[in-house]
Amino acid sequence: MQTIPGVGPRVAQVIIAETGADMSRFPPAAHLAAWAGVAPAIYESAGKRSPAGARHGNKWLNHMLVEAAGSVARMKGANYLSAQHARLTARRGMGRAQVAVAHSILVSAYYMLKNDEPYQELGADWLARRNDEAHTRRLVAQLERLGHTVVLDPVA
Q: pLDDT tens digit string along 143-155?
């Protein structure tokens, strides 16, 4: 657990103590996030969905995860979670960014406990690389819709 950025011994102990380390109780990771209170609440009426703030969840787990997200914020782009925090802080604000990073930490912990595998760091530039690949795919598809055959030769 402590290989996740921002998660120290105390946060790892709280995650294990509050969830029980048995992930069969939470079929999808979203169920665990909602139970912990780090998933967005949605108000739905007449088929219209609108945001309703944060959910009420396990307050001890929630507070520790948000605190871990705050420590990730001070890492300044050293890993995926700190890059995610910086990107979201610019657009949505500090509080929402911390809850989103806390959600990412909990989902990572869920899959680590469920699959019994170590944390795999995506890298600080993962979002940029992902967007470049998606942008390339969109442009190729657009040219093919216009009737062109596209052959990509990457620059060495």
A: 999 999 998 887 7
CA distance 88 to 92: 6
The single residue listed with the structure tokens 């944390």 is: 119
In sequence order, the 6+-apart residues with CB closer than 8 A to the CB of 14 are: 60, 61, 64
Question: Hey, how many other C-beta atoms are within 10 angstroms of the C-beta on 23?
Answer: 18
* Cα→Cα distances 51→31, 79, 96, Å: 18, 29, 13
Give pLDDT tens digits for 38-74: 887 778 888 888 877 777 788 888 889 999 998 988 8
- The Cα–Cα gap between 127 and 141 comes to 21
**What pTM does this model have?**
0.77
